[in-house]
Design goal:
The chain has about 210 residues and is of the alpha/beta class. The chain has one domain: Rossmann fold (3-Layer(aba) Sandwich), CATH 3.40.50.2020. Helix content is about 25%, strand content about 35%. Strands 1, 2, 3, 11, 12 and 13 form a 6-stranded mixed β-sheet that branches. The chain has a 5-stranded parallel β-sheet with strand order 5-4-8-9-10, with helices on both faces. A two-stranded antiparallel sheet has the order 6-7. The longest helix is centred in the N-terminal third of the chain and has 14 residues. The protein is globular, with a radius of gyration of 17 Å. It starts with 5 loop residues before the first strand and ends with a strand.
């Protein structure tokens, strides 16, 4: 499947790129016809910093006290915190916290007692690698509100066309940049019904071929 891979670039900076591969893949929530590989964004400092600058531009006029990183995006989150704390705008916080929560088996966000103070009564930005359906983002927002935090935005590298009332969603690359991308509920997947074998399982760590 790697032989069919190609790259998509962020419109505002072509240094920010992701790799996509067509096929039949299974994620935690759905079956999809493309694997969106975020490895380089998550692991390479130059690419992570470039992505962070774009996110910071989108949230320059938003007060941010804490960044919650999902899907192993902590390095990007650290760079976003650095950019926001040094940028001109509404956000004057020089000590933005970057934390990674845990999730229960039914996808409820949980914070250990030592991390709760970074969310309670704070303005919290959610940073994710992918947010195509909005399910994970909404789960994180519910968790932040449960801990008495104020979710001020969702930032994602690759995102779908969903909206969350009162919470801005910013993406660097969208599903509109990959118009052939389709996501299906497991029981409604036409690839499965057509007998197309599954190429790989996908999670925040990457993909595992079957």
């Amino acid at each position: 499947m790697e032989t069919k891979a190609y790259e998509l670039f962020a419109k505002r900076n072509n240094k920010v790129k992701i790799r996509v591969m067509p096929g039949h893949f299974v994620t935690q929530h759905s079956h999809v016809n493309y694997c969106v590989d975020m490895t380089r964004v998550k692991t390479e400092m130059g690419l992570a910093r470039a992505a962070a600058k774009l996110f910071a531009e989108s949230f320059r006029d938003v007060v941010v006290d804490t960044i919650i990183t999902l899907e192993r995006m902590k390095m990007v989150g650290a760079f976003v915190a650095e950019e926001l704390s040094s940028a001109s705008g509404l956000n004057m916080n020089q000590d933005i916290a970057v934390i990674s929560p845990e999730f229960t088996a039914d996808e409820k966000l949980i914070l250990r007692d030592n991390l709760v103070p970074y969310v309670k009564d704070r303005h919290v930005l959610i940073l994710a690698a992918t947010a195509t359906t909005g399910i994970t983002a909404m789960g994180a927002i519910r968790g932040i509100r449960y801990y008495d935090g104020d979710p001020v935005g969702v930032a994602t590298v690759f995102g779908g066309n969903f909206e969350i009332p009162g919470v801005p969603v910013k993406k660097l690359i969208g599903t509109e940049d990959l118009p052939a991308y389709k996501s299906y509920r497991p029981g409604e997947c036409p690839l499965c019904k057509g007998g197309v074998k599954i190429d790989a399982l996908i999670n925040s760590y990457g993909y595992s071929k079957i």
